[in-house]
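One thing: could you explain this record?
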Amino acid sequence: MALNVLAVDDSATVRAILAKALRMSGIEVARFCEAARGDEALRLIRGERFDLVFCDLNMPGMSGYELIEALQADGTLASLPLIVVSSIGSPAAVETLKRKGVRGHLRKPLRAEQLRRVVADAIGGIHELRA
């Protein structure tokens, strides 16, 4: 299944690395969209269909934390698979994110082999990543 993906990070470089890591991991992507801030991402999510969202936590304007809370508060968006991509990675922080509905966590810098496993877990299995 080819995925419609949204990458939310204030760094264009990180968004480009994520796109490249997705290609290298063999995950089929139908559409790759980008947002630099949480509020921009929220507008895109409300207007288009995404299968998966990658999100940084620390961004100017609406942070990733605030985006996660906004998605959880919206009944139609609460089930959207979201993976946090951040340098923050303490076990307590990751557990808090999971309680807020986050499906996965990737530490920066990204590695393609880790990305595939986390995406498979977030969307319900590796078989769903095959065309």
Summary: DSSP finds five helices and five strands in the chain.
